[in-house]
Amino acid sequence: MNCRRTGVAAAAVLVAVSLAACNRGEAGGGGGEGGGCSGVRIGLAVANLQADFFNQIKQSVDAEAAKLGAEVQVSDAGGDSATQVNQIQDFISRQVQAIIYIPAGATAAGVPVKAAEQANIPVVAVDRNAPDAPAKTFIATDSVAAARTLGDWVVEQSGGQGQLAILQGQIGTTPQVDRQTGFEEALQDAPGIEVVAQQPADWAQDKAFSVAQDMLQANPDINIMWGQADAMALGAAQAVSVSNVPQDVLIVGFDGDVAGIQAVKDGTVDATMVQQTQEMGRLAVQSACDLVAGEDVPAQQLQEAFLLTKDDQQQAQEYLNTHP
After folding, report:
1. What is the mean pLDDT of each run of 10 residues along the chain (324 residues)?
2. Which of 129, 154, 238, 242 is the S-S candidate for 125 at Cβ 3.0 to 4.6 Å?
3. Burial per residue of 102-140, b for 16 or more beta-carbon CB atoms within 10 angstroms, e otherwise
4. Which pLDDT belongs to residue 105?
5. Any idea which architecture 143-275 has in CATH?
């Protein structure tokens, strides 16, 4: 990304904040008694609406806000941190009362939080949190525990032996760091599994396909591939299908988005961890309204993810019908 552009945008935010804060005065109490949401104006800053995972959260936020009478304004950063900094500035200028924030990346992720705080606007971070400027509350999957569960399943299925390739998400983001940590914890009990390749594919299926092809060419004995998101697991599956390697390759993902669940159901991917995207969206709206009303909200609200394997056909269909 263009770091100079980010710096300029960040400076613009901080200039705009002082004006917005003066106009707003104290944080609004639009939540009403008991943390009600009626009339509360919420800005939803999404990292990238092309990703099904983020789309599901958006759909849940919209539905919960409509149910509770809140107004949601949505911005899509398209995966660009600098764009998102400008979009947060716009939310501040519009005097939203709370922001639900899914950072587009690790770079400059703390800038919008600091800007919103200066304008007395509480921030609810979802899926990713800025380590240098955490939001008032952070809602996400307990990715360390979930990745450990997935890793334990891989160890069991492989008999603790294998050549493992890891397709990493965007380096430094909360889910990438936590998923790497949890999976590595599981591998500590399986010294017979050797990590022979790991490289970022930035959550993208097309990039994962290219990276996985290169991995298989360099290490033709790879028999386990882990995509730290379902899109990357699907890219790995495509690469395996055209590589003509003689061995079976165990492929696992993470997220439980629609394409990932369908791939597990079809046997294209062997397993994934299903995140509670709908629940996270509902909880984000409720937390935003509680913060506007001045109520206490936990600093972290971590959710369980569910292991789904190719043997769980009925469960896969249930998830496709109604996502958790």
Report:
1. 38 39 36 66 96 94 98 96 95 98 89 96 96 95 98 98 97 95 97 98 97 98 98 98 96 97 98 97 98 97 98 98 96
2. 129
3. bbbbbbbbbbbbbbbbbbbbbbbbbbbbbeebebbbbbb
4. 85
5. 3-Layer(aba) Sandwich (3.40)
Helices H, strands E: what count in the chain?
A: 11, 12
pLDDT at 107: 78
Radius of gyration, CA atoms only, the chain: 21
d(CA 187, CA 195): 9
The sign one gets for the Cα dihedral 107, 113, 114, 115 is: positive
Distances 58 to 80, 195, 257, 290 between C-alpha atoms, Å:
18, 36, 13, 19
For domain 3-135+277-303, the CATH superfamily is Response regulator (3.40.50.2300)
State whether residue 307 is helix, strand or coil: strand
Nearest to 47 by CA among 120, 140, 145, 178: 140
Cα 251 from chain centroid?
20
Distance CA 272, CA 179 (A): 12
CATH 3.40.50.2300 region(s) of the chain?
3-135+277-303, 143-275
The count of other CB atoms within 10 Å of the CB of residue 298 is 11
> pLDDT (tens digit, 9 = 90+) per residue, 98-125?
999 999 988 789 999 999 999 999 999 9
Q: What is the Cα–Cα distance from 76 to 211, expressed in whole angstroms?
A: 27
Specify the pTM: 0.86
Instruction: Return the structure tokens found at 263.
Output: 């791939």
Which secondary-structure segment (H or E) carries 177? helix 174-187
162-168/224-227 β-pairing: parallel
Q: What is the pLDDT of residue 159?
A: 97
Nearest to 153 by CA among 187, 194, 203, 192: 187
Of 199, 192, 237, nearest to 218 (Cα)?
199
**Cα 320 vs. chain centroid, distance in angstroms?**
19
**Which position has the token pair 């990276």?**
211
